[in-house]
Design a protein that fits this description.
Elements: E1 8-13, E2 16-17, E3 20-21, E4 25-30, E5 37-40, E6 54-56, H1 62-65, E7 80-84, E8 95-97, E9 112-114, E10 119-123, E11 130-134, E12 138-144, E13 154-160, E14 166-170, H2 178-185, E15 189-195, H3 211-221, E16 225-229, E17 253-254
Parallel strand pairs: 5-6, 6-7, 7-10, 14-15, 15-16
Antiparallel strand pairs: 1-4, 1-17, 2-3, 4-5, 8-9, 11-12, 12-13, 13-14
Length: 255
Amino acid sequence: MVSDNTLETRVLCEKRHGGLVGRKLSIELSDSEHKLNYLVDAGLRDYPCRAYNAVFLTHHHKDHIRGLNRIPFQDTLTSHVISPMLNSKFSLPGLRINTRKSRGGIRAREHLYLSSGVYLDIFNISKCPVPVYEDAMIEVWGLPVNHDPQFQCVSYLIRNRWTNRIIWVSGDLYKLPKSSLEFLLRHDIALAILELTYFNNNGSGDYHLDLAAASSIISVIKPKAYWFVHFSGKWKGFEHLIKKNVPKPRQVYKF
Ligand SMILES: [Zn+2]
Ligand SMILES: [Zn+2]
């Protein structure tokens, strides 16, 4: 195992608007020597030349999957892409189905590959948080969130097995189901990362988080630290309200 057992969390993003993290992003976790590397979401077109062990997708909107084909993996046999169940209307870049073996649709995980040769690990999140991944370094649970009702959307609770510290990374959401909230409350969250698309939704029926909703989630979960990411142009003029919780370029959180 690596000398220092902490993981470094950072936001990789393509563009910043007024100093804020834009919508094309991935969250990267890696040990200090970059031997173990993980991503949440694949919103970037280009990735650092690291070899990733696992990529966790929160949902299948374009801005979260568009770079999937460009990610360098550690080893196509042991690396994984982990994703909530697919809806046939939304495909993934480079998705291949082994039709020779496939029976009963596309749910059997051993029958799904990406063009890179990496396994696609599909899980069903319909009820409660589920364990979705485990290796010597991390343990990960998928927690449902309410975002686009057309498909399953999740957030991830990630525990460093060496330090026992936990972070929670959510993609787009506007509400947390009770089961996810209760699961979060049973854990001490060191860092929460939330996508804060709008300053104010005004009940527009859009399925994204605004500042009031984000603040109430934070006040209940009480993480030691929290980061807001994924801002849209609608934040223009309001940047000062959240600047202290927006990660700076190359800012790192160790856990
Ligand atoms: Zn989305
Ligand atoms: Zn999004």
